[in-house]
Amino acid sequence: MRMLMTGLLYRRRHCITLLEMLKFYARFEINDETGDPLTDHDMTQVHYSKITSLQKAAFAKFPDLRMFALTNVASVDTRESLLEHFGSLKTEKLQAIATYLNLVPPAERQHIEDWVRRDHEFLLELLVSRHERRASQLELLNEMPLYPTEEIIWNENIVPTEYFSGEGCLALPKLNLQFLTLHDYLLRNFNLFRLESTYEIRQDIEDAVSRLSPWKAEDDSVYFGGWARMAQPIVNFAVVEVAKPNIGENHPSRVRADVTVNLNVRREIKNEWENLRKHDVCFLITVRPSVPIGTRYNYREPFLPQVGLVYVRGCEMEGMLDSNGRVVEDGPEPKPVLPGDSRTFRVWLDCNQYRNDMDNIAQNGGEDVYETFNILMRRKPKENNFKAVLETIRNLMNTECVVPDWLHDIILGYGDPSAAHYSRMPNEIAKLDWNDTFLDLDHLRDSFPNHEVKVRTNDPTKLVPPFILTFEEVIEKQNARHEDREPDLDKKQVIVVEPHVIPSRGPYLYNEPKRNSIRFTPTQVEAIRAGMQPGLTLVVGPPGTGKTDVAVQIISNIYHNCPSQRTLIVTHSNQALNQLFEKIMALDVDERHLLRLGHGEEALETEKDFSRYGRVNYVLAKRLELLQDVQRLQDSLGVTGDQAYTCETAGHFFLYQVLARWERFLASVKRVGKKAVPLNLVSDEFPFHKFFDDAPKPLFKKRSYEEDMEIADGCFRYIEKIFTQLEEFRAFELLRSGLDRSKYLLVREARIIAMTCTHAALKRSELVNLGFKYDNILMEESAQILEIETFIPLLLQTPQDGFSRLKRWIMIGDHHQLPPVIKNMAFQKFSNMEQSLFTRIVRLGIPTVDLDEQGRARPSICNLYNWRYKKLGNLRHVQTWPEYCVANAGFHHDFQLINVEDFNGVGESEPSPNFYQNLAEAEYCVAVFMYMRLIGYPAEKISILTTYNGQKHLIRDVVNIRCAKNPLIGLPHKITTVDKYQGQQNDYILLSLVRTKTVGHLRDVRRLVVAMSRARLGLYVFARVSLFKNCFELTPAFHQLMERPLNLHLAVDETYPCTRPVDQAPANPPMEVQDMPQMAQFVYDYYIEKVQAMKNAFYDAQKVWEKPGTVSSSVPDRNVSEHPGGDRDTDDEDEGEQEQGASKKKEVIPIQEEAIEDQQVDGAIAPEVMETEEAGAQMEAENGNSSEQAESQMEAEDDDSNE
Could you tell me if 967 and 1151 are in contact, meaning their C-beta atoms sit under 8 angstroms apart? Predict the structure, then answer.
């Protein structure tokens, strides 16, 4: 109160906003004593009690306020009404009222508590602020426009610039460890997500509008002197519909408008505009530039004065209009081809924002914003999901969020951190089927070194997996809980092993279940055990420790142990989701129970389609296949009629024909007492011999009654499964549309459903409305997912009887690697928005399972980053497999730090803001890549990484010039940034660190860990050593890197693959490369030598060429067998040699006859073979404008993120 009434607020930048935050949380909707959240009804009751107390005091003590005391609450609880009633009172009366209500101490204690102001203005404001009616938080939130406007986008008090030093205090919410209530949790995330999206929108608007180059023409109109891929001038804009408000609302229920643009652009850009999908978000912009035609835009000057931007409004795409003015619906069929370049789009406007704008016109006589728009801007789809996510968060705040009781306190950051661990859960399961987790009994014993393993059988032939394990300490805890006593935890921990045989599924080889082949480590087994149990499981997986394999085994084990439960898989990227699916398909999981939601399934390395419609097509095709089997079974049994017409008729056929015959068979072969049974009895009585004619022969071995009965049971299970599946598919005969079938598949049929976190946020309301249910959640890449995007998947279903049915939450990630991408430094550092929920829970002290053995990189490369973890060793195969035991061909070391000095006096450059490049490092990386290709390295085993986008584009340009069109070299597997490459790996990594003036964002150790851990066999880092060696945060890694020479050492007499052991030096002294020009010159000379050798081989092949008909066969000097396969000679070997020779001959590439060696070499680069060295200089001259063109060259490589 005192601060509000001082002049300090108007002299400090953030004071007013900070004070508003203080007032908000001082009156937050929470019970101050119990900490329970208060509903709107509870807050209304609190407000009424305050007003009633004031009215009682006025009635009893102050007769002058009798009218106030007798008036109903709704008439007197506004600020205006309270000021009217109390403003005329004297200071003494105000003080008496405040003292009566215990708002200020009594007058006799004034000399003791002299901190209280007692002037009229203060006392009046104290009474009014305490008793005035406040708008509900939800009401304010629901009336808020979700699209940012120009008033917010460029308000640096709300959305700070990217240059945040970390000093001072900002008026922003923070995400730390604890939250007051779930409403507070959602509200902070809502505000931060909205502001971060606003910052990204600001960057996109500035980029697009500056490219359009708006100028003021002589007639005061706007002239656009440039063009932009993502923005077009508006030809016409008109609001076509303003629908009436819904009951209880004060804004229109729908506002639609038509936007016309002229797409006189290249075909591919025109297609991008025409393919805008329903619900894509665009922005309507008004610019009124004041600068004349020809004025050059300056990126380093403020944006708004240069372009004269006045208004920004968001809109949502409904669709493009056809020639008849109707919206072209999205669908699988191609869109109609429209004549001309003029296109009109129907858009939805924000109803809340439209009401605000119309109220402004009515009250203040302002300008009609919707008559001024002259630019339509779109954004990249994968970065344009903010509106749907904000709507989802707002919907969550309007519903009663039901989080499982065992998770509620942990999410808010309170209570016992280990309360949700499986060992503390009351429903811990003592006996579980571990399926194919263990390869043998020894593997099981090794996996539990602290347990005594007991087996139920002494027959060694039966001690084979799968195993059922019973943990006796769990039984002891359950018994102690039931008997209300403390469990005896000092007893030896015992596991009882019970092997069991999976029942035969049929007589065919493909009926054998797929099995796991990975020998899991004890820590991985502990992670699998935790994931199979109810509760919260956190698995911290350093690079290469088998996180995905653990996740897949957990999913498989839950699938087999809990056939009635459904599991939801959530990942950060499509690539991680695809990797999970490819490994799930390799295990014993029926593919009809798998479903993949969202885009990205195209990248699956399989011909099977796991999308919604792909699964529907699979079910329909499988139904026809099964009905054909029914028809075959009917024919084999000699039954008449059309039994295989539908799933329903097939069900009747099974009941009356198949099952009846099976029951008669069982009765005829039933063993009576101990009477001997003929060995051929089962075979003679079996009724389905003819159906299994195509099975391996003999069907029955006739060695024992039990063995034949097991075969017969397996055959019937095979038949029974046919009809079971048909019964499941029966609904697809009744549902006729693909949409209805896909919804049924999602809600009823699928048991393992996978999606990205972004898709979950986008489609939450749709999934809830469908009645989507699940029991378990497994999250991969958890440390890369935003806090709110991790929380939303917990609430993709409606609660049952007020309780959540969620039983397991498995989170797998690595908080020592890169966090979620937050572009604004203030939100990233000050608000801590980059902290994932996984990281926060780890910081709270929740028990984790830390995987401690890696199987990706050589031990020497692993040492570069394993210091960041508690314990990270190496699996046996990285020391024994041949590929790890041999050296990298052509290199003296398996990893090396290469110092790169300035080239022509230039180190790092910055053609446009934050667009860092280093031409010397780019050329050096490409030269080493060319060298590797020339000595035989496969291109797909090499990736080039860098820490900045500008360097990525420069390297791509150099590669396109020097390598792309050269059949001897080609393109590397990927050229991208370290951040984009997280979660991927390759055998050989070339890494460019770019900076030569300051360390930059590699100072973040998490980025260093990612950069060092991408390589399996070889890592070569190009950097300015004098800069990075002095960075304290990087010391552990760079100390090891600097133990080796800082100039590149080559073994030029080696070719790929190499046979030299990794710990053995090359036979000849290494070639030491001093700098980039020397390396480029060496590669050029080596290339010429290689081409010359190939050309000589080409000419030699021409000399030995024989014309057709000149070759005669020699007469054999031995007898020749009459049978064509009976000739015992060495023809097979000769043919093998000839095939090898032919394959070598095919690899020869014809060379033009001009003498390549006549070309002159100037410095490091040859003019035609190596093209020009001016690529980098040209990029600088273009001042960053080439980045958009470079984006399109290899953009597909980076599009493995979200929808």
Answer: no
User: Does residue 39 share a domain with residue 85?
Assistant: yes
Structure tokens at 707: 């063995």
> What pLDDT was estimated at residue 1113?
54
Which of 843, 858, 874 is the C-terminal boundary of a domain? Answer: 843
Q: Please tell me the distance from the alpha carbon of residue 764 to that of residue 767, in angstroms, as a whole number.
A: 5
263 and 133 share a domain? Answer: no
Q: Where are the beta strands (DSSP E) in 1042-1174?
A: 1048-1050, 1071-1073
* Maximum distance among all Cα pairs of the chain, rounded to whole angstroms: 138
Residue 149 falls inside a structural domain: no
Distance CA 520, CA 446 (A): 10
What's the pTM?
A: 0.87
Contact predicate 726/650, CB 8 Å:
yes
Pairing of strands 231-242, 917-918: unpaired
Indicate whether 493 belongs to any domain.
Answer: yes
Give dist(CA 988, CA 971) in Å, integer.
Answer: 14
pLDDT reported for residue 1131: 43
Structure tokens at 148: 């940012």
- Contacts with 636 (C-beta within 8 Å, 6 or more apart), sequence order: 688, 690, 691, 693
Model confidence at 944: pLDDT above 90: yes
480, 487 contact by CB (below 8 A): yes
Residues 831 and 895 in one domain: no
pLDDT(1151) > 70: no
Do 313 and 428 fall within a single domain? no
For the chain, what is the domain count? 5
> What distance in Å separates the CA atoms of residue 587 and residue 571, rounded to the nearest whole number?
20
pLDDT for residue 239: 96
Q: Tell me what pLDDT residue 734 has.
A: 92
Tokens of 28: 């937050």
Report the pLDDT value the prediction gives residue 1107, as an integer from 0 to 100.
66
Nearest CA to 176 among 191, 188, 166? 188
Give residue 470's identity as a one-letter amino acid code. Answer: T
Nearest to 975 by CA among 1011, 946, 947, 1002: 946
Q: Where do the DSSP E strands lie in 1032-1114?
A: 1048-1050, 1071-1073
Is the pLDDT at 321 greater than 80, yes or no?
yes
- Last residue in a domain, options 349, 371, 398: 398
Q: How confident is the model at residue 1163 (pLDDT cuts 50, 70, 90)?
A: very low
The CATH number given to whatever domain includes residue 411 is 3.40.50
Residues 263 and 308 in one domain: yes
The region of weakest confidence among 194-208, 439-453, 1101-1115 is 1101-1115
Determine the average pLDDT of the residues in 768-790: 95
Residue 521 lies in a domain: yes
Report the CATH number that the domain containing residue 944 is assigned in CATH: 3.40.50.300
Q: How far apart are CA 619 and CA 591, in angstroms?
A: 10
The reply to whether 1122 falls in a domain is no
> Residue holding tokens 């029966």?
730
How many angstroms separate the CA atoms of 1159 and 1166, rounded? 8
Three-state secondary structure readout of 511-548: HCCCCCCCCCCHHHHHHHHHHHCCEEEEEECCCCCCHH
Q: Are 708 and 702 in contact (CB under 8 A)?
A: yes
Q: What is the pLDDT of residue 198?
A: 96
β partners of residue 1050: 891, 1071
* Percent composition of the chain: helix, strand, coil (DSSP 3-state, to 5): 45, 15, 45
What domain range includes position 382?
A: 183-398
- Compute the distance between CA of residue 1099 and CA of residue 709 in angstroms, rounded to an integer: 72
Note whether 249 and 257 are within 8 A (CB): no
Q: What is the mean pLDDT of the segment spanning 866-886?
A: 95
Same domain, 664 and 795: no
d(CA 496, CA 964): 61
Backbone phi, psi, residue 1036, to 5°: -55, -40
Residues 42 and 72 in one domain: yes
Q: At 813, list the tokens.
A: 């990630």
Let me know whether 373 and 465 are in one domain: no
pLDDT of res. 1195? 45
